[in-house]
Amino acid sequence: MELKKAYLFSMIFLIISSQLVIAEEQVFDILDYFPSKPGYYIKYKTSDYYSRLDGIIELVAQHKVAESPTFTLYQSSGKGYFRNSFLMYKIEGNIVRFRGGTIGNQAHFWGSFFYVPRYITDGSTWSRRSGDFGNMVYKVEALGTIKIGDVTCVECIKISITTSNTLPEIADYFEGVETMYLSKGVGIVKVTFKRKNGRVFTAEMIENGYYSPSKITGKITLDGKVPAWGYGVAPTPIDIWAFVDYKGEFSMEIYGDWIVLFFGQAKNGNIELKIANNDIANMIEVSKPFTNLYLSMFMNPNDRNVKAVGRIVEKIDNWRNLGYNEGYGVIFVKISEIIMTT
């Protein structure tokens, strides 16, 4: 009888054991959350007290730079001002991080703040020290598939970033808590940054899809007459996408309706950002149409060879304001509002 009982209990244990399912911790590959095929875009509705921002900004995947997926981030409509930026992500060891070729203030919430291990799980935490942004503490929450506004966030990941001990001169702007929501196969669908001073930045996805490529063509001269033969053109100073030929002409392909162009002397595959032979690297915000642009290394309205009539969007007197080491003046202009004659 005792033997039968023991046998019965053993069978019951085996049956129960066979029904047990041990849940494994889900591991997320962060690269699954960043589609980077050229032409892919996300449009965001944004608002911020600073710069009186209230409009649409677009994140658009471009061709790779130095084997790194790259994105332009620009304001396509609305009020206020968003400094158009160029971002690329790199894998450094186990860390996926964004770096900027040019990067504006609010763009840091996509760019410099993003510093995430490639493989993460629910509850993952880590921290780092940034020279500008101070102490940065990260935390991950796996939310499942949920709604974020009108967007379905698939296998949604929430990443919270808390900054403290930020440089005093930028603490009002960059000290606080960022919350980023990422959807698998889609990308970042929402970003908020609640500053310690109470001001809040928000960006929420309203549309995504693919752009067809567009050609940018034009001519660059040194002084309105002499072709800038051998000079480089690109949406970032750290890589050259097109060279100017002996006629002064160039051609390149981009995605989206707006882009920032750097053009200047070429050195070691980069755009040279130094004054040389009275030349200076220029940055121009370009909107469609992209064809037959006529640019000059000098766009001074008082220049005797070139007359430029247009609205100056911003003048920066020191490159250090953008994180560069060289201190040379640069003028931003909207090419669609420029008339150039010789």
Summarize the structure in words.
This protein is mainly beta. The chain has two domains: about 35-210, Beta Barrel (YmcC-like fold); about 215-340, Sandwich (Immunoglobulin-like). The protein is about 5% helix and about 50% strand. The chain is built from two helices and 27 strands. The protein has helices at about 1-20, 170-175; strands at about 25-30, 40-50, 55-65, 70-80, 85-90, 95-100, 115, 120, 125-130, 135-150, 150-165, 175-185, 185-195, 200-210, 215-220, 230-235, 240-245, 250-255, 260-265, 265, 270, 280-285, 295, 305-310, 310-315, 330-335, 340. The strands form seven sheets. Strands 7-6-5-4-3-2-14-13-12-11-10-9 form a twelve-stranded antiparallel beta sheet. A four-stranded antiparallel beta sheet has the order 17-16-19-22, with no helix packed on it. Strand 3 and strand 4 (about 70-80) form a beta hairpin.
